[in-house]
Design goal:
With 213 residues, the protein is of the alpha/beta class. It has a single domain, classed as Rossmann fold (3-Layer(aba) Sandwich). The chain is 31% helix and 32% strand. The protein has six helices and 16 strands. The strands form four sheets. Strands 1, 2, 5, 6, 7, 8, 9, 11 and 13 form a nine-stranded mixed sheet that branches. Strands 10-12-14 form a three-stranded parallel sheet. A two-stranded antiparallel ribbon has the order 3-4. The longest helix has 19 residues. The protein is globular. 36% of the residues are buried. Bound molecules: 1-O-pyrophosphono-5-O-phosphono-alpha-D-ribofuranose and uracil (URA).
């Protein structure tokens, strides 16, 4: 499904049997951290492949063993940025698919009482005029993504895509208001947040499940 909200923010909910299967295992309370890391990498490969579907290309001439032919290659420099901690689980998949990308890191943590995110680390490469792919498996209130995107857009990238696994309507609505130029790719748009701002039905605390904390 691909939908356009408001002026131009777009979101894609990946329709793929394998992604649905993996997501069911990620939701399952019985899935252990070792399996969780493997499943996170697998679903991230599908999501990042989808995110890369319309990356700009340029024509190049390639010599095959038989003759010269015109081909397409990716045109722009890429930067992938995982949000620590949970986004780290998606990074290896991104670099397998986009091995030439530079990597930036943003550390953001939600306060357990207020759910407000605060930044504790930032190390970004040059992102001016580059294609940026932001990785964070959970979009709940949207507060973490909002802070990450404020930081990224201040660097004047050419385009930004947010790849997440599960999104909530509350987070989608916030990002639509704040960043109409953003593209979001996710595996599921869940129902709502609970009183502690966890996604329902969701899958719990992603970072805890990924790292066994
Ligand atoms: C999780 C998740 C997002 C954030 C989403 O991180 O990885 O960054 O929550 O929630 P929000 O949309 O309401 O901001 P968390 O703060 O739990 O940190 P962690 O990845 O270090 O566990
Ligand atoms: N962060 C998570 O890890 N899970 C949620 O449901 C919400 C925020």
């Amino acid at each position: 499904m691909r939908a356009v909200l408001g002026r131009s923010m777009s979101y894609t909910i990946l329709k793929h049997s394998l992604a649905e299967h993996i997501l069911s295992r990620l939701r399952d309370v019985g899935t252990d951290p070792e399996t969780y890391r493997r499943l996170t990498k697998s679903i991230s490969q599908l999501l990042i492949t989808e995110a890369a579907r319309d990356l700009p290309t340029k024509s190049v001439t390639i010599q095959t063993p038989l003759e010269a032919t015109s081909c397409k290659q990716l045109a722009d420099d890429l930067v992938v940025i995982p949000v620590l901690r949970a986004g780290l689980g998606m990074l290896e998949a991104a670099l397998d698919i986009l091995p030439g990308a530079s990597v930036g890191y943003l550390g953001l943590e939600r306060n357990e009482e207020t759910s407000a995110a605060s930044a504790y680390y930032s190390k970004l490469p040059e992102i001016k005029d580059k294609m940026v792919i932001l990785l964070d498996p959970m979009l709940a209130t949207g507060g973490s993504a909002e802070q990450a995107l404020d930081r990224i857009y201040s660097g004047q990238p050419k385009n930004v895509k947010l790849v997440c696994i599960v999104a909530a309507p509350e987070g989608m609505n916030l990002l639509e208001t704040r960043f109409p130029q953003l593209d979001i790719i996710c595996a599921a748009l869940d129902r709502e947040l609970n009183s502690k701002k966890y996604i329902l039905p969701g899958l719990g605390d992603f970072g805890d499940r990924l790292y066994g904390t």
